[in-house]
Backbone:
């Protein structure tokens, strides 16, 4: 069994068998992470560059840890400390890095489509770690892994993505991946944050959080991204919290099991109340642990492909 | 499957498992410190059978786990097909234990090498002993088995197939012609 594509650019169009293979493989690595020595020699001799043009804590550390635990050699590149500051073009930077013989590139960039472009100018396997408001496939995969871990399945599950769907790459990757796996996906948020015509992706739209909570088993709650001008689309953070924030009261009112995911970093008191962020319904820290396993799976499957 | 000979039948298979269980108990003076680790896939079932036998003979039940050593293999760069990996399931502490590593066929020794590395990452066992159903020769590494069901000298063009009821329809060992590689 191998993946059908040698890059992971997004979950759009990725066949069900591939997603299944990644999730199954991640289970193996989840076990490795429980061992006293959390390292296997599988990618010995492979060189991986983490090309981060946009800030990141979780994703970069997660990728780096995954690479180290597979014994790959890793190089970190971030714009703030590189020659990109001196005006070198993206293409030149990549060409130069490639001249040093790298096998894989993990890329994060503020512009959608950069990973796709990379596949044209580099021979390495490309993994998208978030491109603009397009996709963030490994986040989508780790969300699916975490949901599946909780319910034992994805098919037929009702999952609602809550928040600024219009500017979220996490939302798109979740929608594509979950739909492929047979889940029923919906989105919920103020009208200014739900893109027009999103129904064409086969998702239901809610504008009231209580209705969404009554009808779904999983809420994937997105972060209100102030750096992407979320403030212009809502009157105030307080008002957003009042109408869309997930609170213990709201959960208890529905009196049923509900699982809450959040890609982090959390704005406490905005999309989640502190109580919920630390409460029994969330799997936020499991998501982080699973993230390393899922990324190991992706690196393994792409890195050992022939 | 292009069969050349049936080497062990069902009765023989059961007798061999019984002997292996006795030998393991003899060498380790009982089963107090013994843990059985089967290698995916058939080694796993063989380990279960040996565990049942030890239970019958010694009235004790050694701990039992399964190991997948795929991630430690040395042939990722040369193989054409990506190997499937499954989960290692060893829930007990291996430190200071006498580990019996169990597999169906011993051939080049490369899988065993990978398994040894994998086990070392789990702790520091007292000893690791190797138990196989069939030793077919052609070693490429300095590895030998401590307990052998049957030695079958083979040619490179032959293969040994161990079949077990858990996943096949019978208990038997066959010598077959290797499928041509094209």
Residues:
């Amino acid at each position: 069994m191998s993946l059908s594509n040698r890059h992971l650019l997004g979950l759009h169009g990725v066949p069900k068998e591939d997603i299944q293979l990644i999730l199954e493989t991640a289970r193996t690595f989840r076990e490795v992470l429980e061992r006293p020595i959390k390292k296997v020699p599988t990618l010995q001799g492979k060189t991986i560059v983490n090309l981060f043009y946009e800030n990141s804590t979780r994703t970069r550390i997660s990728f780096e840890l995954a690479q180290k635990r597979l014994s790959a050699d890793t190089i970190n590149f971030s714009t703030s400390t590189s020659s990109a500051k001196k005006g070198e073009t993206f293409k030149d930077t990549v060409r130069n890095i490639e001249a040093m013989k790298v096998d894989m590139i993990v890329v994060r960039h503020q512009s959608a489509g950069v990973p796709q472009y990379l596949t044209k100018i580099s021979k390495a396997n490309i993994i998208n770690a978030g491109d603009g408001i397009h996709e963030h496939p490994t986040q989508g995969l780790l969300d699916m892994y975490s949901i599946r871990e909780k319910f034992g399945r994805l098919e037929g599950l009702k999952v609602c993505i809550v928040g600024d769907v219009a500017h979220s790459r996490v939302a798109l990757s979740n929608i594509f991946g979950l739909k492929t796996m047979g889940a029923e996906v919906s989105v919920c948020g103020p009208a200014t944050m739900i893109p027009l015509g999103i129904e064409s992706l086969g998702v239901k739209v809610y504008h009231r959080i209580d209705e969404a909570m009554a009808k779904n088993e999983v809420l994937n709650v997105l972060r209100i991204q102030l750096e992407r001008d979320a403030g212009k689309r809502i009157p105030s953070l307080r008002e957003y919290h009042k109408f869309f924030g997930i609170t213990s009261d709201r959960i208890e009112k529905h009196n049923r099991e509900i699982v809450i995911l959040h890609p982090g970093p959390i704005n406490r008191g905005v999309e989640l109340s502190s109580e919920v962020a630390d409460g029994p319904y969330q799997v936020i820290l499991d998501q982080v642990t699973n993230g390393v396993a899922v990324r190991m799976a992706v690196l393994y499957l792409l890195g050992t492909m022939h | 499957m292009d069969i050349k000979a049936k080497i062990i039948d069902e009765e023989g298979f059961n007798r061999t498992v019984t002997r292996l269980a006795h030998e393991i108990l003899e060498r380790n003076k009982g089963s107090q410190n013994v843990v059985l680790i089967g290698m995916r896939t058939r080694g796993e079932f063989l380990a279960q059978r040996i565990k049942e036998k030890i239970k019958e003979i010694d009235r004790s039940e050694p701990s039992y786990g399964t190991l997948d050593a795929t991630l430690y293999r040395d042939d990722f760069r040369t193989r054409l097909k990506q190997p499937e990996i499954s989960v290692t399931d060893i829930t007990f502490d291996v430190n200071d234990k006498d580990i019996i590593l169990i597999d169906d066929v011993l051939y080049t020794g490369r899988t065993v090498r990978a398994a040894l590395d994998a086990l070392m990452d789990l702790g520091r066992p007292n000893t690791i002993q190797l138990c196989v159903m069939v030793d077919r020769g052609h070693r490429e590494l300095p590895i030998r088995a401590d307990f052998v069901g049957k030695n079958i000298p083979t040619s490179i063009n032959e293969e040994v197939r161990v079949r077990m009821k858990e996943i096949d329809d019978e208990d038997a060992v066959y010598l077959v012609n290797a499928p041509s590689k094209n």
Remarks:
- The radius of gyration of chain B is 16 Å.
- Chain B has a mean pLDDT of 92.
- The interface with chain A takes residues 68, 71-72, 76-77, 79-82, 84-89, 117-118, 121-123 of chain B (CB under 8 Å).
